[in-house]
């Protein structure tokens, strides 16, 4: 190509930003998935954990050694193998040392390594010391026996193992959690004896299903003795799919009249549980409890004492409420997403996990045997040459003394290899004693027998399988222990409803003109006589009970509700409803009602439209309320009137100019919400001056009071016959002097 047309190179590559970003993000995500967050199925470790354990073994910090400062270990790890932050590395090491975090801790710590209350309250690494625990031998024991591949460290000056030659499926023993890019892993810990038993079953019966293996692995086994209450069928499904959840519940006993919590779920903080219970007590949501004490100590790591108010408290109901509302019961997500032997992340079921691990273990044992066989054959080769030298000792000595280059002469004279000859020449004089020949022949016999055993094992799948099984059982006998987390199927915990927790007492709910609310005990309360803020006065009051809800209607026809027992006491001025709800700007609260869900009320507007609705329709949890009464322009919401007997009760509507109409409640439609039908007729020409001031429901035997200024007219149920008419008619006119009606009330 002509130099004049060759494109110039400026020392950088130009690619589209989209392509660069995609490539960079994929590279980063693959790094996080494979080299940080997800464990390798073979040894169950993430890279940082593997490097910590390897560094500790290189420092000689095995179980029988004296511990060294944790800072020394962390320094070695980040300086030689893991070029990341020291705090993250130290935290990973601390986690492996916490007996409440790891089912089988790999690190033994001296000093403050955190507590169940605050796992991250551990001391700085310059203060603590650490070494490996005995079970770490399961990961490290075969490291120098040709069982793993080695890779250069980050700067190429050292080599580190790509994985650990685990003799047990450590992934299931201690479990792991991690969040990568687009995927996560959550493997719970399991009991060593159960896992080994399942491995042996799979070795003996390669066609065993997940359900068969679950006869051995019955469920996770956490470091705590809290109960696992997930049904057995759900656990089997979890192991079949590799996905699911496990529910753990605290254990408790009754001592005299007190309830004592003796164990908490995994990762549950005693301090947080006590605070959760105390918060409910302060909010008067646990009236059954008198006090709570933390009596935990060294002898009893978890001992939380609940003191009930009386001996009549239902223990099961109370504890069920606490299980449902606090961390005394926790759910743990399960996701068997791990990096398999093919180097790819995948969600695996229990059978896939164990069969792949057994393939890994079989390959590790095979590599170990081949490595040992090479060593045995090399040693036999050297001993063979040494024996030749012994049998021809005088000749060998003569050659060494007389020849300038004895090595080639010896090789030619006795048909020795270069390696054998080197070994003979390096042999010390004291090894030429007469008894040494017997030692050589004895060692030779032992090594030949070992070579035969190894060769036979490698040549037979059955013998190799038996070796793997025997080693698994030996480790189980050495390191296995009893299950800690009992498996107990229990029903779902039920929180006690607020209506059950709060005593049912008569209450009067009082609403002021400016929207301030309060509740007074009893039904014989004179709401008008209560003190109000300057410029404020009574708007309406309703009788209710502490366990019921009270609903409020604002000037736009929206409905809001809250429980009566949560309202402030009438001893003060109360609180503004705008603090509890979020009405539209400019809207004001105009009416209220209270009752059971099935109670019926007549809702009406000042333009004479209305309908009957159940109280349940007025309630809801939305702070912005719910649309209830549709209003025509300039109409106002009237105080709801409670319906007793739909068949016998009468609706009474009265206008401010004295038109009063009575008609059966049954004539009013029952709706969930809306505008309703016309209750009393107001001519359109008079809408600007005439309006409905009140709606009431009168039952047989009750009396209707009509208020006009300071005067009150009483009308019995029979007296209303004079005003009976069809719904939506004009009604009758009250006597002269009663044409300025201000309100109605029923006694």
Quickly list its features:
747 residues, alpha+beta, Topoisomerase II, domain 5, Gyrase A, domain 2, Topoisomerase, domain 3, 5 domains, four-stranded antiparallel beta sheet, 18 helices, elongated
Report on this model:
With 747 residues, the chain is an alpha+beta fold. It folds into 5 domains: 121 residues, Topoisomerase II, domain 5, CATH 3.90.199; 77 residues, 2-Layer Sandwich (Gyrase A, domain 2), CATH 3.30.1360; 126 residues, Topoisomerase, domain 3; 91 residues, no CATH class; 152 residues, DNA gyrase/topoisomerase IV, subunit A, C-terminal (Neuraminidase), CATH 2.120.10. The chain is built from 18 helices and 35 strands. Strands 10-11-13-12 form a 4-stranded antiparallel beta sheet, covered by helices on one side. It has a 4-stranded antiparallel beta sheet with strand order 19-17-18-22, with no helix packed on it. Strand 17 and strand 18 form a beta hairpin.
Continuous helix count: 18
Given helix and strand content, the structural type is: alpha+beta
Q: Briefly, what CATH class of the largest domain?
A: Mainly Beta
Q: How does the overall form come out from the CA principal axes?
A: elongated
- What's the CATH architecture name of the largest domain? 6 Propeller
Tally of separate domains: 5
Mean pLDDT: 91
* Radius of gyration, whole Å: 43 Å
Largest sheet, strands/sense/barrel: 4 strands, antiparallel
CATH superfamily of the largest domain: DNA gyrase/topoisomerase IV, subunit A, C-terminal
Uncertain segments: none
Strands, total number: 35
Helix percent band? 25-40%
What do we call the CATH topology of the largest domain?
Answer: Neuraminidase
Amount of beta strand: 15-25%
Strand order of the largest sheet: 10-11-13-12
What is the rounded distance between the termini? Answer: 110 Å
